[in-house]
Amino acid sequence: MKVTFEKPTAQRGVVTVSIEQADYAPQVKKALKDYQKKAQLPGFRPGNVPMGLIQKRVGPAIKAEEVDKAVTKALFDYIRENKVAVLGQPLGDDSQEQQNIEGQDNFEFRFLVALEPEFDATLTQKDKIPYYNITVDDARVDEQVKGFQQRGSRPAEASEYEDGDVLRGNISELDETGAPKEGGVYAEGSSLMPKYFKADDQKAYFEGAKKGDAIIFNPTKANDGNEAELAAILKLPKEEVKEHTGDFLFTITDISRMKPAEVDQELFDQVYGKDAVKSEEEFRARIKEELTQQFAADSDFRFLIDVREYLTKRVGKLEFDEELLRRIVKQGEQDGDKEMSDEDFQKSVEELQWHLTRQQLIEKQGLKLEADELQQTAVQAARFQFAQYGMSNIPDEYLLDYAKRMLDNEEQRQSLVRRALDTKLSLALKNVVTLDQKQVSLDDFNKLFEKA
């Protein structure tokens, strides 16, 4: 077995694997014997089919398979042992003459490989990169407090309808004259939320309504014929609501309004757990601390974007063998017959350049991801997901179990690995470059992404 490597261009390499009969013959012989043990043909007992017949029936296919295995192993062993920096998978050289498996004993296979471009992404203190610190002001804390109050809202009785209230009452079908329809629909304890009516004229009938008021409206028009909504209001099966498209009389028995939670011990316990916070001052301080941590992660995320932009300008556009890259991408996609547009391909090339730059930065900083660090990242991601729904006091054992399920999902795992490495990379680079510290509001910080 002989493997050689040529580099016709800086972006393309050719690996040639030369294989002789002695390199694969023992494997072919063993495979044929294994097949003979299992072969079943009419006129022969299992395992007693003559080798000549086995050779005739499956010899070429087994030879081709063993040659392919030997060549593939030699190819990837060479790339690994010689540390050839390749992009994607090697491709067979289409210009090579077709190999005659049956008629040849010695073979030569050529493979094309796209090579990583050589570049230097070293950063030092001479490199000055912006770092945005987001201000956590009282207004932002107030906004978060109101959010917790809304999540802790409870229904309270109201005397007069306001937009967003829930109305409960009895509903009865009317005939063309406006009188109760004989044999018509009647339901008690029906619920309405006029705020979500599709027709403004129907919504207007309920403005300023009070308990005990009787209001005529058309449920079908109000809900734009939505059968599920009408079935819930009229308390009918969905398939029957089309038979009742006229006006109805709704007599209000109750008006319910969601009242925000008070900023008191009950709310503190609901958000952070029993007695974890004991005063409004502590509550606001805890919120500010959490927002500061959250914004710090956002600042680090933005910092890596600025590192990317900085290095892209400094290094310049990397040179790739685009024709070969297109073929590699096409081969790797599920829909291999679909051509990638020039715009999508250029975006892929830009992402590839950052991937290589990021990888070089990680290697230069000697960063490695430990299992406990990945688990902690998953726990933090789980905690953040629950916090989005106002659940901040989730027990640690539940977070760990949820994090484990996230890591069991390969797609989520890869996302978490990337996030964890980005966190480590951001922390490392902040100690390498000179930070151009900037204090900004959250609104101004978000505008940075709008510009991008």
Short summary:
The protein has 452 residues and is an alpha+beta fold.
What are the salient characteristics of this protein?
Chitinase A, domain 3; 3 domains; 11 strands; Alpha-Beta Plaits; five-stranded antiparallel sheet; alpha+beta; 452 residues; 18% strand; 14 helices; four-stranded antiparallel sheet
Global Rg: 35 Å
Low-confidence stretches: none
Specify the number of helices: 14
Q: What is the oligomer described by this structure?
A: single chain
Number of domains: 3
Average pLDDT across residues?
91
Helix content: 40-55%
Overall description:
This protein has 452 residues and is α+β, with helices and mostly antiparallel strands. It has helices spanning 21-38, 51-81, 138-151, 200-204, 219-222, 227-234, 265-272, 280-315, 322-332, 342-364, 371-387, 396-408, 410-430, 442-451, and strands at 2-9, 12-19, 86-92, 107-115, 128-134, 154-157, 166-173, 186-192, 214-217, 248-259, 434-440. It has three domains: 2-115, 2-Layer Sandwich (Alpha-Beta Plaits), CATH 3.30.70.1050; 128-145 and 268-451, no CATH class; 154-259, Chitinase A, domain 3 (Roll), CATH 3.10.50. The chain is built from 14 helices and eleven strands. It is extended. 15% of the residues are buried.
